[in-house]
Amino acid sequence: QVQLVESGGGLVQAGGSLRLSCAASGRIFSISTMGWYREAPGKQRELVATITNSGSTQYADSVLGRFTISRDNAKNTVYLQMNSLKTEDTFAYYCNAYYYRNSMKYVYWGQGTQVTVSS
Prior knowledge:
Elements lengths: L1 E6 L2 E4 L4 E9 L6 E7 L6 E7 L4 E3 L7 E6 L4 E6 L8 E11 L2 E6 L3 E6 L1
Parallel strand pairs: 2-11
Antiparallel strand pairs: 1-3, 3-8, 4-5, 4-9, 5-6, 7-8, 9-10, 9-11
């Protein structure tokens, strides 16, 4: 089992910045990839950014150049630095982690943190 706890959401004006944190505990040595997803009410959850345990990153086109994902393996924490925020970045943001074991994929989610960007 892996537990994920997010923090850092809040209200910010357009053009501002926020940093989200996600602390992992439990079976953390198994985790291969961690990431951030976001979801609006009634909409499908969408990928924001992911980072592998070797540091390879992937970003959604909508956040490329504005958001940066990073990972501190010593602290078992993944971060999402969000700059130049836009009103359309208003979502609930969820931390995600997964690993494979015996050909099965184990996926874990945090409880979510709300980010609201005002105009």
